[in-house]
Write a structure and sequence with these properties.
Strand order of the largest sheet: 3-6-4-9
Distance between the termini: 12 Å
Number of domains: 2
CATH superfamily of the largest domain: DNA methylase specificity domains
Radius of gyration: 22 Å
Mean pLDDT: 94
CATH architecture of the largest domain: Alpha-Beta Complex
Strand content: 15-25%
CATH topology of the largest domain: Adenine-n6-DNA-methyltransferase TaqI, Chain A, domain 2
Number of strands: 21
Structural class: alpha+beta
CATH class of the largest domain: Alpha Beta
Length: 363
């Protein structure tokens, strides 16, 4: 049965406390999210974002306190990021969140409904400077919601897959933390030398061929079309096959601490033109990945509005090259970790494909 979102829950906007008042922000207060917090975020639930606000900040802005199990849907810049609030949270104005009526819809079911509604939401968005879905438009947005029994049957398929993907992601996060800790232990003075990292990079940027959304829609398939922060689409073609490091080139190029946006990827994929495509030269790609993971790049980022890490600036980064014996010793330790990471990622690729097929059929 079709319902307007306002008929199965309450649609709530957000707001931003004035940054002129430092007392509105705190390190530990009310979790406050922006769409940026969901960029590349692949978990169903989220408990907090990059910043917290105080009760005073909440009361002196249009931000609202949302209960646990609210469905957070980004409504601009960009549209269609979705997560479920694990606890009470607030958001900025870039969200139109839904507090679901549990008598009509299960929060996890509505989460999947909204995940599959991204393109429809983009089509009904309006605005001259940037597209946005208003509270009124979101409230009137129609979705198909079956009985609670039918919802539970669908979730019996999707939730085990989703939970397994998230478990695998946690395993890989722990493995990467271990690899990074080992890197810092073995190479504590890595950023003190005069060698240039560009001499140890194979760059494949010239082989990138970005595809428009229309072009991608004409060739749906199983291969990942990857952007600077995440997988953007799936198509039936690929132009890379192997182990690579993707480093953000423009747009989102660094996190709040100044470290680069990185992806360690392998297999068959098609990158767009917003990330450098790299491999190690005389160093392993895994070593190169760990090097950039601990390297602050704020000094080489250019652009006031559109941030950019040029190939020239990236190559100019200075470091202290370890001797070959140290590199071999370190590689012998980390390669089994990355082998496990690839194995777990491969399982997730397969599970994501299964989940994608099921979502297409079930919604």
């Amino acid at each position: 049965m079709k319902y307007k979102l306002s008929e199965i829950g309450k649609v709530v906007g957000g707001g931003t406390p004035s940054t002129k008042h430092s007392e509105y922000y705190t390190d530990s207060g009310i979790p406050w999210l922006t769409p940026k917090d969901l960029s590349g975020y692949d978990k169903m639930y989220i408990s907090k974002g990059g910043r917290d606000i105080t009760q005073e900040g909440l009361e002196n802005s249009s931000a609202k306190l949302l209960p646990a199990n609210s469905i957070l849907v980004s409504s601009r810049a960009p549209i269609g990021y979705v997560a479920i609030a694990k606890n009470e949270v607030a958001t900025n104005q870039g969200f139109k969140s839904i507090i679901p009526n549990r008598e009509l819809v299960i929060p996890e079911y509505l989460y999947f409904v909204m995940q599959t509604s991204k393109q429809d939401l983009e089509q009904i968005a309006s605005g001259s400077t940037f597209k946005e879905v208003s509270t009124k438009v979101m409230s009137n947005f129609e979705v198909e919601i079956p009985s609670l029994d039918e919802q539970n049957k669908v979730l019996d398929y999707l939730l085990p897959i989703t939970r397994k993907i998230e478990k695998n992601s946690r395993i890989n996060a722990n493995l990467l933390n271990l690899a990074n800790t080992l890197f810092k232990h073995y190479f504590p003075d890595i950023n003190t030398g005069t060698d240039k990292i560009g001499d140890y990079i194979k760059n494949f940027d010239k082989l990138r061929k970005p595809l428009s959304k229309k072009q991608r829609s004409e060739i749906p398939g199983k291969y990942r079309y990857i952007g600077a922060t995440s997988v953007n689409d799936h198509i039936d073609k690929y132009n890379f096959d192997g182990i690579y490091l993707l480093l953000g080139e423009d747009g989102t190029v660094q996190d709040e601490y100044g470290f680069p946006i990185l992806q360690y990827t392998f297999g068959k994929f098609w990158p767009n033109n917003h990330a450098h495509v790299l491999q190690g030269k005389n160093v392993s790609t895994e070593w190169l990945y760990l090097y950039f993971s601990q390297r602050n790049i704020s000094g080489i980022v250019t652009g006031a509005v559109q941030k950019k890490v040029s190939q020239k600036n990236m190559n100019s980064l200075k470091f202290k090259l370890p001797d070959s014996q140290e590199l071999k010793k370190f590689d012998k330790i980390i390669q089994p970790l990355f082998s496990k990471i690839r194995s777990t990622k491969l399982e997730n690729y397969q599970l994501e494909e299964l989940k994608r097929v099921l979502l297409t059929k079930l919604f």
